[in-house]
Design brief:
The chain has eleven helices and 15 strands. By secondary structure, the chain is of the alpha/beta class. Helix 6 links the parallel strand 4 and strand 5. Helix 1 crosses helix 3, helix 2 crosses helix 3 and helix 8 packs parallel to helix 9. The longest helix has 13 residues. The mean pLDDT is 90.
């Protein structure tokens, strides 16, 4: 198969990924009669656009759970802000807050109460940048190797750093929410980080978009019983909400999106 223009070749690869196919760089190089370096450049460009997830030797399709953080920020912004506004009401003066990596938690930075001597710890690059623009907030940055899917640090260095904190209130990111399976994470390293975070946290809050109730995640971050407050959307279906209440979850219902 000959696709002479790099952009045309890239479009063909993107279409396969969008169709759910994993791709292998060596195989694509033979198919298009180009070098593996050329294919790797294509895959890097597609990954930068949030259209695939790079792995050794090729790339995987993006699922809602593995979509890069930067690609999720502007999705359903109004709904995320409605959740964040309600979640912020749980915050008390002087608390050490932990904002776990996630686009919904990023929206929370705009609604953190002013002039209440709050300290915000986070492992997320975008959240740290937003907190820095708030002179009334103190920031603790949990560092390490940045995972672009998570949008923050969840490696061994990050786990060791967060284990040294005493967190008053953590806003835990969730890839999936289920009455029996609890709070799910798409990546193993992220799930491990969240488990350690839960060990040093007094109160845990989860902001849950409706899509989280239908999602499946392979790793458990914590049980539903470990969540002190689950903030849900105003139109969350009863088919999902009723089982959560029956399982003992404490819910707060957000207002409609602005």
């Amino acid at each position: 198969m000959q696709v002479p223009l790099p952009l045309a070749r890239r479009d063909v690869i993107a279409d396969r990924l969008a169709g759910g196919q994993a791709v292998v760089a060596a195989t694509l190089a033979l198919e298009f009669d180009v070098s593996e370096d050329a294919i790797r450049r294509d895959l890097r460009a597609l990954a930068a656009e949030g259209r695939c997830r790079r792995v050794y030797g090729g790339a995987l399709p993006v699922t809602p759970q593995t979509q890069p953080m930067f690609a999720r920020i502007d999705e359903s912004r109004g709904r995320k802000e409605a959740l964040a506004r309600t979640a912020a009401e749980s915050i008390r003066p002087g608390e050490l807050l932990f904002l776990d990596a996630g686009s919904t938690n990023l929206a929370l930075t705009e609604f953190l109460p002013e002039d209440q001597e709050l300290t915000v710890a986070t492992n997320a690059i975008d959240i740290a940048g937003a907190v820095l623009r708030r002179p009334d907030l103190r920031l603790i940055m949990i560092g390490g190797s940045v995972d672009t899917t998570v949008g923050g640090c969840v490696d061994t260095a990050a786990v060791q750093a967060v284990a040294q904190l005493n967190v008053d209130r953590c806003f835990l990111g969730a890839c999936a929410v289920h009455p029996q399976r609890g709070i799910g994470a798409a990546l193993h390293a992220d799930a491990l980080f969240k488990r350690v975070l839960m060990e040093v946290t007094r109160d845990c809050v989860v902001l849950a978009m409706n899509s989280k109730f239908e999602a499946r995640a392979p790793h458990r971050a914590c049980a539903l019983a470990d969540v002190d407050l689950l903030v849900v959307e105003h139109d969350a279906p009863a088919a999902f909400i009723d089982p959560l209440r029956a399982a003992g979850a404490t819910l707060a219902v957000a207002g409609p999106a602005a």
